Amino acid sequence: MSISIKSPREIELMRISNHMLCDMHRELEKIICPGLPTIELDNLAAKFIKDRGVKSNFLDYEGYPASICVSVNDEVVHGIPSKEKILHEGDIVSIDAGIIYKGYHSDAARTYGVGKISAEKQQLIDETRNSFFEGIKMARAGNRLFDISNAIDDYISKFGYGIVRDLVGHGVGTELHEEPQIPNFRQDRRGPRLQAGMTLAIEPMINLGRGDVVWEEDEWTVVSEDGSPSAHYENTILITDGDPEILSLY
């Protein structure tokens, strides 16, 4: 396994890419409301990206047809925005997006409530986010990669949620998906040692029910097998000589 170590110049380009992506997520969050066709989220993202002279790293990726992924309720990831898919009061919606800036990728996902949502769904969103922050406590030079995986599992499993095992986090840099793969569930091995300069996309995907998933007929949209709601929280992080830097938050 070859894990790239980024130079200071590369890190700065990734920082700019991720800060831009963070701004885009903030703009997308503002328009989420009942009655909104999910294509409007994609339209806003496409305009944001065009106005800044950058590129979506999802559009045309292995044939994916939109600038961002918009996944509603039991859709775990890779939901395709459309004018027919309308947000309703009480839904939860996950937005996964990325930008290419001067050849360097950013990647981050958020899950939001639509209008007033149930306490059960809100807790799922909150604890999925919290599991990310528990995981990155272990994201320090000298620790092992799967220390992150184990910390996420240890935190989230006590709630009885299902951890999605078919999809994992990954390295990110000049490619959207680089080595290493980063599971969100406990591993028997500890994995490679973390080094300063590694850039990783950590992304817990957590179901209210079981963790099993299936792919829809469009061959993109992944849904929970039992139909339970799913939450997704992701950031691109930088391993440093101290605490990790969350590049997609500032």
Would you mind describing this structure in some detail?
- This protein is α+β, with helices and mostly antiparallel strands and 250 residues long.
- It has one domain: Creatine Amidinohydrolase (Alpha-Beta Complex), CATH 3.90.230.10.
- It has 4 helices and 17 strands.
- A 5-stranded antiparallel sheet has the order 10-9-11-16-17. A 3-stranded antiparallel sheet has the order 1-5-6. A 3-stranded antiparallel sheet has the order 2-4-7.
- Strand 13 and strand 14 form a beta hairpin.
- The two termini are 31 Å apart.
Brief overview:
This protein has 250 residues and is α+β, with helices and mostly antiparallel strands. It is built from 4 helices and 17 strands.
Keywords:
five-stranded antiparallel beta sheet; 250 residues; 27% helix; Creatine Amidinohydrolase; globular; alpha+beta
Provide the fold topology.
Elements: H1 8-31, H2 38-51, E1 55-56, E2 69-72, E3 75-77, E4 92-97, E5 99-101, E6 104-105, E7 108-113, H3 119-136, H4 145-156, E8 162-163, E9 169-171, E10 178-182, E11 199-202, E12 205-207, E13 213-215, E14 222-224, E15 230-232, E16 235-238, E17 245-246
